[in-house]
Amino acid sequence: MVYSYLLKKESSERQIGCVLGINSALQNVALATGTILSGFLVMTFGAQEVYIGLAVTTFLLAVLSFLSLQSYR
Length: 73
Known about the structure:
Elements: H1 2-10, H2 16-45, H3 47-72
């Protein structure tokens, strides 16, 4: 909900339909890819290793996002 609001706020009225359409398409591709990829990763490495990898990746993305927001201000 907040993400959609930010997209609307930062896009011009002329481009909003295109922006929201691209956003929706990318979300659907990410869901399909994530489902297929996670099954492959769990079969290859095991569930515990996949969860640890996801936790580390999520933490690093959060830190990078925080740092980019600090430089944006």
